Amino acid sequence: MTVQFSPAAGRDRFVGQAISRVDGPAKVTGLAKYAGEFAAPDLAYGVVVSSAIAKGRIKRIDAAAAEAVPGIVKVITHENRPATSQKPEDYQDAVAPPGAPFQALASDRIVYSGQPIALVVGEDFETARYAASLVRVEYETAAPLTDVTAQSGASYDPPMKRAGIKPPPEPWGDAAHAFDTSEIRVNAQYRMADEHHNPMEPHASTVVVEKDGTYTVYDKIQGVSNTHDYIAGAFGLKPEQVRVLNPYLGGGFGSGLRPQYQLFLAMLAAKDLGRSVRVTLTRDQMWSFTYRSEAIQTVALGADPSGKLTALKHDAVQGTSTYEDYQEVIVNWSGVLYDCDNVALTYSLTKLDTPTPGDMRAPGAVTGVFAIETAMDELAHATGQDPVQLRLKNYTEGDQTEDKPFGSKELKEAFRQGAERFGWDKRQPEPRSMRDGRELVGWGMATGIWESMMMQSSARAVLGADGRLEVGNQTGDIGTGTYTILTQIAADTLGLPLDHVTTKLGDTKLAQAPVAGGSWTAASSGTAVMKACRDIAEQAFKLARGMDNSPLANVDFERAVFTGGRIEVAGDPSKGVALTDILKATGTERLEATAEAAPDKDFEEAYNAYTHSAIFAEVKIDEELGVLRCTRVVSAIAAGRILNPKTARSQILGGIVMGIGSALHEESMLDHRIGRFMNHNLGEYHVPVHADIHDIDVIFVDEEDKANPLGVKGLGEIGIVGVAAAISNAVFHATGKRIRHLPITIDKIV
Ligand code: MOS
Q1: Any ligand 1 atom below 6 A from CB of 451
Q2: Which ipTM score applies to this complex?
Q3: In CATH, what class is 364-454+605-750?
């Protein structure tokens, strides 16, 4: 299918080009402001006091010493907290899982360690922080349960399913019997670690009380619509009483999908005091909400001696909080990835005394694909197959979980190009057979997969008499390059120079759009922007045809070419008229359009849409010391049309680095005796640093997809999926030791 951006000519001048970020200069010069940086007259500062216990209740909380500090405005605790909505559903944001969302300072009950128990509001941040250290708390402590392994026996099938999260498919064939009678069997348990998102920008909210009594809220969120509706619901405000902005995000990775407690507390204090308030969380408080919770996974594969799968079982038990049934897709991927006649997939939850886990980059897929792709490597070894050949042998052209073909799937080509770039054909199959001096060398590979989604979204475009175009909607650019790709799409659709287009995002005054998540933003907002601009193109064309002596008088819209700020006739560029002249001649001040984009129902009926990747990794391991370096990664991505190879590559690079973190570094350590994440800082929670990152090569495989008119499938998440398995498989190849529990640290290697 041909994708046309300009109404007639299909001329893509900017789409497909490696355009640098249009928001780059604002971000590197400090012009870009973040939620905790907006100022207001008479701004007060709130500092959160966090619970020292994980479970129990507050017997006594004494804020007298804090309140006595000069410059302290108020200390809010559960004892004097102003009333907010009593209905749990008013706190359920757009992406909330089933359950009763956490409400800060609602009662004396403690449900997780680090839970906010007081807000100390002061004239300045330092004073508030000092006074917060003076709040005295007596607790009645109960024994917390935070060990997913110990609790896995108490797992349950969540009664309410989370919207947008597919439960495991019904089993097909007879996996148990087929496994028992298979000639080759692989059966093992796989574990990751709890991981926390740590975007550069910690969570922060600035609530500005306007003179007319309305609120302007700057919130660290991946989509302002979610904050807006949450605030209006929780505080019983009319929609027009709240405006939410978040033009820039210092990283999200899913941590900014749901409104968090600092927003609630800032709003609570601002409304109560009638004064603007900012609440910024500290780095260690970033461990007090949302995380990628560990799952206990078992994968059982049965195969014939040639490596053809005869049975596939994948079971996962994942931790959630006591108050919400957080759910993600962990096991389904195994059924989507491979052709097998006997498949059984199960997923259940177990309650822990932790905050509710949340979406963290490729939620569920990172976890589940690590297990299935390590198991597939074990099967390759057990059957003496090359890991790529094994995957080709079990390749599927359709999604067996729903009996639908894929809209597109160029995974075979990704395997081919990735293997070629990596030099996979030089791999010696035997573990411990490749060396570089004193280092063992391991080459491993894995497949990655993520669902390609689109959400209902709108966008507005305004073309001014000066020929400048403004487009935008409420969604957030979470660092992925959304400003840039929307600018490219708009410029191409109306044939404008790039610098004539301004894209605005992250403001509830703009056109409706959902949070930026799920890798759906390019498809959703991109299509909406294109449609709004096309609407303007049609309006301009109509006006042009009606002009005196119009060169377009007898031309059909299909033959009009929008280029260089003009409408020209295809094949006869001398015939044309500038957009500015059209508006001037017709006395038009501006042309405006708002367009809606929604998933294509016919497409969704007929096809399932996924992105895929083939990841090849090299590790070098010092044999004596066990020191491991991931020296090379090649990732070949099949994700439909690439709007901007530069921002696209950056997304994949970031995903791979995060995957290296997941494989080798990241681990939030719970002390189960006190139910607390102990390494709640970036000194002890390790993420890859520059010295950990070596060669990374990203390939985009040609793939034509028709799920949306842009042909895009999303890139924010596919980059991380499967990376940990590729690395753990490389570690096995290097050492002969199979490590099924991430992160792979030195103690596990030696
Ligand atoms: Mo993503 S985890 O949907 O921000």
Answers
A1: no
A2: 0.98
A3: alpha beta
